[in-house]
Amino acid sequence: MTFVIGAACVDVMDRACVEECPVDCIYTGGRMAYIHPTECVDCGACEPVCPVEAIYLEADIPSDQTEFVETNAAFFADPLPGRTQPLGSPGGAAHVGELGVDTAFVEGLGS
Description:
By secondary structure, the protein is α+β, with helices and mostly antiparallel strands. It has three helices and four strands, in the order E-H-E-E-E-H-H. It has a two-stranded antiparallel ribbon. A two-stranded antiparallel sheet has the order 2-3. The radius of gyration is 12 Å and the shape is globular. It starts with a strand and ends with a helix. The model has no long low-confidence stretch (mean pLDDT 93).
């Protein structure tokens, strides 16, 4: 099980969670942040610092946000817009910086 970032993060991008994460597994897209499902060590440090309470354990995400479990994983497993290869597991967000793109699901959400 891992932590997942939900709907409340879209277009907020506070980044308190990024700064708090001890393993650097929270990556920033264009409209929201994403937690890498295999790099996350389930420490929970990110959850209490999120000002919009957008971070959930995967099993606890509200039923109306289950798509965010899939889109968090897809951010790393599928090629992002403008890229031919998936991001995969680069070993930390600091290595790649802000990516500025999101999954098709997040890009399609209303602002």
